[in-house]
Amino acid sequence: MAFFHMNFFSPTLLVGTDVNVFIPTPDSGELSTGQDIGYFHDGVKYPVLYLLHGAYGDYSDWGRLTNIERYAQERKIAVVMPSADNSFYQDMYRGGKYLTYFTRELPDYIARLFPVSTKREDTFVAGLSMGGYGAVRVAFEMPERFGAAASLSGAIDLLAALEDAEKEPHRPPFYWDAIFADPGKVEGSDADLFALAQKRLAEGRKLPPIYQTVGTEDLIYPANLSAKKKLEELGLELTYAEHPGIHDWEFWDAHIRDVLDWLPIRPVSASGQ
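Below the sequence we write its predicted structure tokens.
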């Protein structure tokens, strides 16, 4: 893989921000064994996965704490790993417009700089914990842009997270009154994934398939079971998998491979199609 670290000023966020990017390249094993490396042909557009971090994290987490670079190279998929602070992937009431950044500015910017496809069927988003919620939020916000979304140990049920915060109002890292103008009115808003899904379905817009996985010993496991039930009741295309494990990088490193196996990654051809 080719590795790029970028720091650039975002007109949407109004600050400088960091992004790590992996782009598939021929490796020594392929060259030494004479394998087809047509995917490196001029004009090729790679499928792309936007990979989102969790609370307390940043753009570097996935690259430092998992083997995502190797897994992506094996599957010939580009990976984009941005930063979202502790925004819960929202356009914050007092803070950055992260939802707009992730659904509009960042994909447009990446497509101008790197050989990635802009087709819906080649564009995916996944994340862990806060980023698991973010992946589904981003995909539901602009379903015409994202062909699939995956949540690993995700806080998909935001209302449950807000209820937990009421029990411990001073616990970091989420300052809900900075994220939302009125945290008490999140239910039924676009930040409520189940309400947003209903809204999109009523609009006649096709929502992408969802992959949801969680550890059975994870503190967020009960909320994931509740979210699974709600997504199924909405009639969404959901693949659910649970495994022994907790809320940690051992689980996420193991099961990001399941996500990559589930994604409908189309083979890259030498013709660039």
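The chain has ten helices and eight strands.
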